[in-house]
Protein 1
Amino acid sequence: MLDFILISGDRAIFNPIFGKAIVAVRPGILKGTGIPTVNKNKICLVGDEKQVIVPGCSYTSPPNVTPGTGTLSIQSLAPNQKARKVKSKRTAVLLKGTTFTAKFQVLVPAQTPTIPPTPDPIPIYLGTGFFTTTNMQVKGT
């Protein structure tokens, strides 16, 4: 099925719910490495999503209501976000698709407001996200 090809400058939007953690999300920006361009921006290839890293996001995870911080990234793509036929440099291009699996890596654990405070024991939370694109012309499959 045809879908829009992602290009440099497109955004990865993270949903704020990561299991029991609530993350103050910010979008990640894609940087394409493909040779062809769309609207003077390089197209994105499978693997470019690994460069989307959003550091310094605060979070809470009840009962740990004193905020902690961590980093957002894309863990894996949905099958409909990888082109089956369109390639650049022998690598599949990225498509807008549906939702990807996101990862929130805790760097400073959220804590309970007790004395002494108890840190959040979970180091990684999984969630979801989706891509938005400014490319409304070129599609691939």
Protein 2
Amino acid sequence: MRPPSGVALAARTPWFDADACAGHRTVRWEDGERVGEDPLTIGTHHDLASVTKVVGTTTALMRLVSDRIVGLDTEVSRYLPGFRGGGKESVTVRDLLLHRGGLWEWHPLYIAAGDPEEAYRVAEELPLRYRPREGRHYSDLGFILLGRVVATATALGLGQAVSELVLGPLGLDATRYAEPAGEPVATGARDDRVEIGMLDSGTPYPVPYRSGDFSGWRRGPVHGRVADGNAYHAFGGISGHAGLFSTVPDLLRFASALSGYREHDALVRPEVAREFFAPGPDEAQALGFRRYRLRLGGETLTVLGHPGYVGCAVGFVPDRGVALALACNRLLVEGTPVPGETLWHELLKATATEIEKRSGR
């Protein structure tokens, strides 16, 4: 496996603050040869990919649940009337946040639909793949629908809703949907080859299409635009599952705020935050957030967070003042890129080691 072209990371704890970056934010090729590169900086803007699920959609829903505008145990069909039939009537907002709604994991909506409204309709009308609540099946489609719930409940577009509910109140000025808020920018992918390969192999999800059914593939570097196919091709860069760009300092600010959630009760009521942070039926999955273990001496802390396919991740430990951020462009390599989860776990281990050293545990 090939290491990423560039990596930036930061950790904020009661014992130390640290950040570091190395490598390159862009790589250029000509005729298959690497011919140029630009250095990565700590303030480089990155495509968050699925980190959008927590920074945008989940935190917006925390705010809406706190304000009693959305109910966790309300059926999704209450907000999205087209989400009905085949057992969908029983699926709740909570089920989708836990990835237990029975939805398909992925579907190329950009092939099935010609515009965002039609793409949402297709997402709502797709039959369930599993029985609701029978198990956890990580689903982009579930978070696409949750983004639609946020937009419907607020009577705003998703981008404006997340800006007003989350980004503005937390001062995340470098975080924006669809395109970076400024320079410099990390290239997210070499092209659309990943989804082309998914379609032509039928792996990991069987779908009734092949790459030849779509004419809008990007054949060159994906720079300053969302790498995810559904977010970019179907929704113009604004979706519940992907679409945000941000920087390591903004991710750290976000994680610090959620770690100190009691001090942000205008954003989320503490009892609602604790409900979102608690494990669901699957120990490693909370409401929207994934749960990771951080071992410190004889104590095990829980890190809440989420990784993204392009190479970013964010995490925090509630009530303990621990915030973590990672950003890299792992897809800009020849061959097989190192998994983002591997890089994230390395950051968790390094943070634990440094805390133990500094705190004398």
Protein 3
Amino acid sequence: MLNLMPSLAGWRPAASGERCAVATIITASGSVPRPPGTSMLVSESGEILGSLSGGCVEGAVVASALEVMADGGTRLEAFGFSSEDAFAVGLTCGGELEVHIQPLDGSAAGLGALRKFAGGDPERPLALIRRIDAGSGKTELPAVVVVPDPGSFRAAESAELASLLGLDALNLDAEAWREALLAAAAQLEPLLRGGRTGLVRLAPAQGCSGVPARGAQGTEGVVQPTEPVTLLVESRLPQARLLVFGANDFGAALVPAAKLLGYRVTLCDARPAFSAQERFAAADEVATGWPHRYLAAEAAAGRIDSRTVICVLTHDPKFDIPLLQEALELDIAFVGAMGSRRSHRQRIDGLLEAGVAPERLARLHSPIGLDLGAVTPAEVAVSITAELIAARTGAAACIPLRDGSGPIHSLPAGGTEPAISHQPALNKEQASQEIAWT
């Protein structure tokens, strides 16, 4: 549902408090147009905000949404491709979707909880937690819990989450209440802090046999259902950072390629004459300073987190060794360094001499990139970003260069050396800006 937040403030039915239903993709497999978490709003007057599939299933979803608003229940609809029925509602691309549809009114527990966060900065941290099991249709439960700061959310301390889980209606002592929230926290918080979308299934707080619960007037004896509680978690964090160390041709090619993947990119180099070049203007930040000192300062300031990526392209031991020594001590997503297999062996020797533990060295992606046969800076940038995607998704279809053998670069068919641009020569004024290597 986070995909709707930028447009929600200007949507007339939301502004007027009109009853709506929200349809959300909760599982997807195969080739599908949109990922889990994508939502579409349908008002009782038939107005629509958002899209789930680009047209394949929208008509059927709208019909179900109107029925949900009429009967007040929830629905779970499945859509796929049917080769037997040419007129069946489904996805022509061959994928499969499960779509959860639930009513959402204009109250403080429904759309009202979202409106104050609508239309804001799309990079602002925000998370939504919704209950989508059969119990989610209960009118006494909130429709959504809004988490303004996913990185610091403490599930065990959230009264709103306890209400969403229905703990208010159960005869639980303080210890059982806390255990239920801690069980939720163990699954919720990694998704929230990782900026990810996913389903969380929790065993009922009352256990398998059920626990007597209070009725509407506080009477005892109502046994709650024992089916799992299912939560849909959507979390959005600021852009993950990618730090490129090395103001050279390869850095110039990697900066825009990394931005295409959604990273906030910083280019850092110790040499002002190189880092100041216009070709690095696409970077979100350009820093001039010794790489290891810059990284240490950023980590101390709390601007490095578990999603941060570091790509070392300096190809110079006086930069690489202290920088990698610093980087390998951090809890980050990826550390990679460019170079030949010979320079990689020398780099490993240097890091071992510097006191880096062998288990830390196992985290180093060196030589960086997938084995695509890349030669030019642009091709190397594709190779590096390909490995970043593979590392992030866990895909193993291609071989990282660090796991291969033989020459990294080979000549194309015909044996002609490819044209590679080189660093422009420095004039005297630029050369005078070079720092002294001490």
Protein 4
Amino acid sequence: MMNCLTSMNFHQLARREKNGQNRIRLLALAHVQDGKNRDDIAASLKVSRSSINNWVRLYRQNGIEGVLNKPRSGRPLMLTNEQQKMLIQYIDDQKAQKIWIKGYEVQNYIRASFNVEFELSYVYRLLKKLNVTLRC
């Protein structure tokens, strides 16, 4: 029953894995591969026994790709490409005039120009995604 788990070195994969959730999954598979009790594995990794069973099942069905989380694109930007260009142009115009604007001013511009309400923290994330700085 464990024979399909023997061909992979899960310990080595877990050491190289940067994603914490994936690392736990790989460690669980490594412990199963070592013949440890699934209840003990669940207790030591602080996950449910059913999660371990699911990961083993997913590995058997789909290989390593079935177990690991896939990268997610995240929520799409709520501004159209045209609005993003207008925002960048607004910031560039302010910088060209040597005006140092702040995040809340960008937030107000977005609200007034596009009728979209963003939290200030999202405004900063948006600017980072657009690779725009506020300083001159």
